[in-house]
Amino acid sequence: MELKRADQIAEQLEQLVFKGEYADGERLDEIKLAEHFRVSRTPVREALQKLVMSGMAEQIPRRGVFVRQPGPVELIEMFETMAELEAACGRFAAVRMSEGGLDRLAKANDKCRDAVERGDAERYYVENEAFHQEIYRGAANSFLQNEALRLQNRLKPYRRMQLRFRGRMAQSLSEHEAIVEALRAGDTEKAANILRSHVAVQGEKFQQLMAGLKG
Amino acid sequence: MELKRADQIAEQLEQLVFKGEYADGERLDEIKLAEHFRVSRTPVREALQKLVMSGMAEQIPRRGVFVRQPGPVELIEMFETMAELEAACGRFAAVRMSEGGLDRLAKANDKCRDAVERGDAERYYVENEAFHQEIYRGAANSFLQNEALRLQNRLKPYRRMQLRFRGRMAQSLSEHEAIVEALRAGDTEKAANILRSHVAVQGEKFQQLMAGLKG
DNA sequence: AACAATTATCTTGTATACAAGATTGTTGAC
DNA sequence: GTCAACAATCTTGTATACAAGATAATTGTT
Q1: Alpha carbon distance B177, B139 (integer Å)
Q2: Which residues of chain A make contact with B1, given a CB cutoff of 8 A?
Q3: Transcription regulation: present as a keyword of the record (chains A, B) (predicted)?
Q4: pTM of the predicted model, to two decimals?
Q5: Residue ranges per domain, chain B?
């Protein structure tokens, strides 16, 4: 099943906004975008609506749509929410995860460890994502899983930044170990708590996130 | 600032889907809807996209959009997720809620009690919603607040049903009292736990929800 | 009569044309 | 020179026209 042009444009625009190609408050000109993508305004408008719906842009009627890069406050809020979603996933996963799921999780964590040992931050970034997605899956709640995936996707660019900092990868990995253990033990509260603080932005991580915003 | 026609249509369509006017899997015909609303296909298409984004309909490329009424499984999943979101709000609210916020919460609960005493289920439904929204607000996290509001809105029709059952209103109210108390005391864990089980669908409530689905 | 293939029709997706509100620039009055 | 009102232009929102894929129907063959 082929994607329609509007969806392709939406994805590309999403990437552009993620990359910081557009400054906060910048207007997304339908006509310019239409020319750029060599299409009419119609698919561009559909794509813009998608961006608006996903919160990456704001629409002011009869004025246009403007990109909405999250500021420090909103970023913290999103990470806070992500932490709670992950805690919720962990809570369920501790009770519901199958033996196979636990195996997949362990395997995913092995790949994370591998990346750390090689000092490959880029690879850790990818494998870490997969690790967390196994937990979402383990919650055995498709709706919650989708919500978690949605927010994970939006926070993607900022997670990436944090890994650049010295010692972060190793610490993250050691937290993973504790998470796997708690899930294997079926300890709901422990799993939820570790995951919450694993994802939450506190102390050191706060400075790192803020530092990343300027670069 | 005036709404555009497409948004009005989106809202009306949303209401129609909520009311169960459309069966699950039914196709939303662009042309028929355009005729019905006395408008061209363009605003209808925009409205349909909104429905798809909010999860109330599914789009199959080159086939059309079809309404997606949640089945029992998805409903349970949504309630589970809602419970976790509310627990998260409670967790934050216990620490962050201002004196003014606590007052508003108490006032909202007074109105709930009033509705119970009058046996006015419809009014309780409204005031209960406001009560919970005060908690979302009290979490002092706009992003989380919006997520909670979004899901609360989607679950609206099903919450309404549950209140029809004998004793449910009184029990709900007594749980409210405990919630207010925990928040006032700043007891994060207690607030989170009570809210979770207050919202979650377990035991009796499960049967009630299922019963409501058939009517 | 049943099945396959081709054609007709219908529906979505995209392009273009038009309408209406918003912004900006100019002109005129004080 | 400044402010206000009007006009010109630009941009969004809606309507219509066209293109392409999907479904249904009809016809031909076995």
Answers
A1: 18
A2: 60-61
A3: yes
A4: 0.94
A5: 5-67, 72-214
Question: CA-to-C1' distance for B165 and C21, Å?
Answer: 51
Q: Beta-strand (E) ranges in chain A?
A: 57-60, 64-67
Q: Is B20 exposed, middle or buried (0-12, 13-18, 19+ CB in 10 A)?
A: exposed
Is residue B138 within 8 A of residue B130, CB to CB? The reply is no
Residue identified by tokens 């899956």 is A137
Total Cβ atoms within 10 A of residue B75:
19
Give the model confidence (pLDDT) of B83-137 as tens digits. 999 999 999 999 999 999 999 999 999 999 999 999 999 999 999 999 999 999 9
Query: CA–CA separation, B200 vs B194, rounded Å?
Result: 10
Per DSSP, B21 falls in state -
B70 C-beta less than 7 Å away from strand C: no
Instruction: Enter the DSSP assignment of A61.
Output: T
Task: Domain B5-67: state its class.
Answer: mainly alpha
CATH 1.20.120.530 holds for B72-214: yes
